[in-house]
Amino acid sequence: QVQLVESGGGLVQPGGSLSLSCAASGFTRDYYVIGWFRQVPGKEREGVSCISTTDNNAYYVDSVKGRFTISRDTTKHTVYLQMSNLKPEDTAHYYCAADQWTSAQSMCRHLVVSAWGQGTRVTVSS
Questions:
Q1: Burial category of 88 from C-beta neighbours within 10 Å (exposed 0-12, middle 13-18, buried 19 and up)
Q2: Among 16, 30, 31, 106, which residue's Cβ finds the most Cβ atoms within 10 Å?
C-alpha cells in the first residue's frame, strides 16, 4: 500500500517562497507518478503539478507556471514542490498524491489518483 507523507507548508507573505516535500513508500513498480493538488473550502480539488519517474515533462496548471517547480529524487521516492512569488490565491490545503499507472498530465488534469497524503496548509498573507 502506497503511503505519502507531506512536509513543509506554513505561513508566508505575498511574493515569498515555500517548499513542500512528499516522501512516498510502498510502490510495487519502478514507474509511478506523484503530484501536488490543492483545495480551498467550497471548491474542487485542483491538480497543481505532477511528475512521473520517466517523463521529464512535468505538468503545471496555468496559474502556477513560471512560479512553481516540481522535482523528484527517485532514490528517496521523494517529490518536491518549490513555490516562489506566492500569491494570496495560492492559499489552500495542499495534498500529495500518487498513482502507478497513469501519466502526469492525466493525474493532474483528471485526478487519476490511487493514494493521497494527509495534506499540509499553505497560507499566503501579509
A1: exposed
A2: 106
Beta strands 92-99 and 46-52, pairing class? unpaired
Name 48's Cβ contacts closer than 8 Å, sequence gap at least 6. Answer: 35, 36, 37, 38, 60, 61, 64, 68, 81, 94, 108
The DSSP call for residue 118 is: -
Grid-cell match 518536491, residue found: 80
Beta bridge partners of 21: 7, 80
Residue pointed to by grid coordinates 493532474: 108
Q: Decide if 96 contacts 34 (C-beta within 8 A).
A: yes
Residue 100 near residue 113, CB atoms below 8 Å: no
**pLDDT (tens digit, 9 = 90+) per residue, 24-61?**
999 888 899 999 999 999 999 999 999 998 877 799 99
